[in-house]
Amino acid sequence: MSFVPGWVFPGQGTVPSTRWDDTALARRLSDASTDAGLDLLALFDGPASEERLQTRVAQPLILIDCVVKASKLRQAGVGCRVVAGHSLGEYAALVAADVLDPLDALRIVMRRGELMDRIAGGMMAIVKLDTAAAEELCHESGGDVVVANRNSPQQTVVSGRLDALTEMAERVEQIGGRAIRLGVSGPFHSPLMSDAEAQLRPMIEACRFEDPMVPVVSSVTGEVVRNGGRLKELLSSQITASVEWMAVLDSLAGEGVTHVVEVGPGTVLAGIGKRNPVELAYLSYEEAERWANSSSESP
Known about the structure:
This protein has 299 residues and is α/β, with parallel strands linked by helices. It is 43% helix and 15% strand. The chain is built from 11 helices and 10 strands.
């Protein structure tokens, strides 16, 4: 079987539970976060470790974990034909594709986490119902709940006010679906994030975006992008836009990818991917690293 890897980077679903490897890049990013008033390494020990789940903390933690792991994979000889990221993961994808400087990405993500942490609301996964049914439920809510992630044909994530999510959960159960509240602090990827997006946009616009070394699949549209200016434009609207992950997987396959490497903590994206009809094999970061260290042949 041919081995054509694509790298994908997770969002806020899984926070790293152990410290990243001590590399020069890791030290640069850790020092930068500490200089900005957030000592991330201290959060892996003792009672402070619970803070890792807070949005303002989780987002830079996940970014650094992903960026460091991507650098290590490249040094080990595991390349990629294309990259993509789920929500927050898109920042790591842009760093991996040499579009965005890692320190710029960290500064933006630290501010992103702070802004998103301030807005009340929540998110909920709807499973056992197709996307059309989930969209109809959002329509019935009168716009109080919207589709946030189109992850797979039978898993749609919605976002909105907490009371509206509670009402929708009851309706989901009535028609044979299952509603699962997600452990995030706000209504991400919804119009309720408009103010946060507007405040973050100047930081994004002030940063230099290079044309990507490898194509980037946008989570906002699912399109394959080869232009830095277009990537900046899409990232500027990302907080309120839905994550079109089904379209992302279609584009990865369209670029010839055979194996998706999940670069970051956990295997959330592999779980989502296996519920999609697109035929792709999945490797965790640890599996890709072990293969790189033990074999010169494809997995």
